[in-house]
Design goal:
Blueprint (H helix, E strand, L loop, with lengths): L1 H5 L4 E4 L1 H8 L5 H4 L3 E4 L2 E6 L2 H6 L4 H15 L1
Parallel strand pairs: 1-3
Antiparallel strand pairs: 2-3
């Protein structure tokens, strides 16, 4: 698998589909977005999918931008 070759410091999971694929759980993005999750000897950071943010209510945009900013500042 490519991830094993690259060995990234953190993997950003964009949206619930990606989060479910990597974490193997039935998750709620509102509960895990913007958080670091350590599983399977890897670190994951979850954010809303941009399409979800764009088609949703305006209050999602500041949350999304904050999560991206946090990711960039800390990794």
């Amino acid at each position: 698998m490519e991830i094993e070759i690259i060995k990234p410091e953190i993997i950003c999971l964009v949206g619930s589909t990606a989060a479910k694929a990597f974490l193997g759980k039935n998750i709620k993005m509102n509960q895990i977005r913007g958080k670091i999750i350590r599983e399977k000897e890897k670190s994951f950071y979850t954010i809303f999918h941009p399409a979800y943010v764009l088609r949703g209510i305006k209050s999602r945009k500041p949350i999304f931008y904050s999560d991206i900013k946090n990711l960039l500042e800390n990794f």
